[in-house]
Amino acid sequence: MDDQTVRTICYLSRLRLDDEKSKKILSDLDTIIGMIDSLSSTNTENISPLYNPLEETARKFNDRIKSDNNKELFLESAPESDENFFLVPKVVD
Known about the structure:
The protein is mostly helical. It has a domain at 3-40: Histone, subunit A (Orthogonal Bundle). 42% of the residues lie in helices and 4% in strands. It has helices spanning 3-12, 19-40, 71-77; strands at 81-82, 85-86. Strands 1-2 form a two-stranded antiparallel sheet. A hairpin with a 2-residue loop joins β1 and β2 (85-86). It is flat. The two termini are 55 Å apart. The relative contact order is 0.07.
């Protein structure tokens, strides 16, 4: 990674950087690339692949059909209603 590459990335990203920030980003990118390179040299010979970071599966719930219609209950608890609709204060003129 060199300064020209950082400037090209900034140009393509529509970013303007001064020289100080460009040097800081170059240093940060070199650190990130170094960390990624160190991961590729890690010995993973006896480690099985991990497809999900959470070893547990999600709990499954039984679907139950309910014929409850609570519309009237909800409309009764509303401050104002008109037939099947909630009445609310006007927000936008």
